[in-house]
Design goal:
The complex is a heterodimer of chains A (about 140) and B (about 90).
Chain A lengths: L3 H23 L8 H19 L1 H7 L2 H24 L26 H27 L1
Helix pairs in contact in A: 1-2, 2-3, 2-5, 4-5
Chain B lengths: L1 H22 L13 H14 L4 H9 L1 H22 L5
Helix pairs in contact in B: 2-3, 3-4
Classes of the chains: A mainly alpha (about 140), B mainly alpha (about 90).
C-alpha cells in the first residue's frame, strides 16, 4: 500500500498505541486490562505497521528471531516466576505465602509477582499476534 | 428396526437429561452450590492476599495461576501448529 495519508496516520499513531499497550500491561494489577489485552494492543500496533508499510519493513522492526525468542521464553518466564515460590520454601506459583514483598496497594509496584508475570505473558501474547500475522502473510505473498 | 432402537435410546437419554434439569436449582437463587464461600473469600480477601487493586488480575494471576500458566502454553502450542502447517522455509 502506498497511500500517503494512511502511512502518516499510522506513523503518528504507532508510538501512542505501543505506549498504551505497555501501559495496560504494566497497570494490569491496578486498572482494568492486563497481560492479554495489553499484549494484543501492542501486537496490533506492529501488525498495523506491517500492513501499511509492507511486511518487509515490519519484519525489520521485529525480526523472526526476536518473536521466536519471546514466544519460547514467555511461558518459561511464567514457570520461573512460579519457581520463586518453590525456592523460598513454599508452593509453586505462591505469591504472598512465599514471602515476596507485596508493596503498597495502588502503587506501581504492588501485588508481588503479579506485575512480573503480567509483563512476561503480555510480551508473549503480543509476539503471538505478530507471529500469526507474519506466518499467514508469508503464506499469501 | 434399527431406527426404532435409535429412537428409543434417544428418548431414554432425553428422559435422563430432563430429570437432571429438573434437579437444577432456580437461576439466581442464593443457596446454589455456585454461590459458595469462594466468591466471598475472593471479594473480601483479594486485596490483602495479593496486594493488587484489580481483582480480576489477582484472581487470574494469583488464585488461578495454574490456569493462566496452561493458557500461555496453549498459545505456544497454537503457534507451533500454525508453523507446522503454514510456515515456509528451509529450517
Amino acid at each position: 500500500m502506498t497511500d500517503f495519508v494512511l502511512k502518516r496516520i499510522v506513523a503518528l499513531l504507532l508510538p501512542f498505541v505501543q505506549m498504551f499497550g505497555m501501559y495496560v500491561i504494566f497497570h494490569g494489577h491496578l486498572s482494568p486490562g492486563g497481560s492479554f489485552s495489553g499484549g494484543i494492543i501492542t501486537g496490533l500496533g506492529l501488525i498495523a505497521f506491517s500492513l501499511v508499510f509492507g511486511l518487509d519493513r515490519g519484519t525489520e522492526k521485529i525480526t523472526d528471531r526476536m518473536t521466536t525468542l519471546i514466544e519460547s521464553f514467555g511461558a518459561l518466564w511464567y514457570g520461573a516466576m512460579g519457581l520463586v515460590g518453590v525456592l523460598r520454601g513454599s508452593a509453586f506459583l505462591m505469591n504472598k505465602g512465599s514471602g515476596v514483598p507485596l508493596g503498597e496497594p495502588g502503587k506501581l509496584y504492588s501485588g508481588g509477582l503479579i506485575i512480573l508475570i503480567t509483563l512476561g505473558v503480555g510480551l508473549k501474547v503480543g509476539s503471538t499476534m505478530v507471529t500469526l500475522f507474519t506466518a499467514l502473510m508469508e503464506e499469501e505473498g | 428396526m434399527s431406527r426404532n432402537i435409535a429412537a428409543f435410546l434417544l428418548v431414554c437419554i432425553g428422559l435422563v437429561m430432563f430429570l437432571a434439569i429438573a434437579e437444577l436449582p432456580l437461576y439466581g437463587s442464593p443457596d446454589t452450590p455456585v454461590q459458595n464461600y469462594v466468591a466471598k473469600r475472593y471479594v473480601s480477601g483479594a486485596l490483602s492476599d495479593t496486594g493488587a487493586l484489580n481483582m480480576v488480575a489477582s484472581i487470574v494471576i494469583d488464585y488461578r495461576a495454574y490456569d493462566t500458566l496452561i493458557e500461555t502454553t496453549v498459545l505456544f502450542t497454537s503457534i507451533i501448529a500454525v508453523f507446522l502447517v503454514l510456515k515456509k522455509g528451509t529450517n
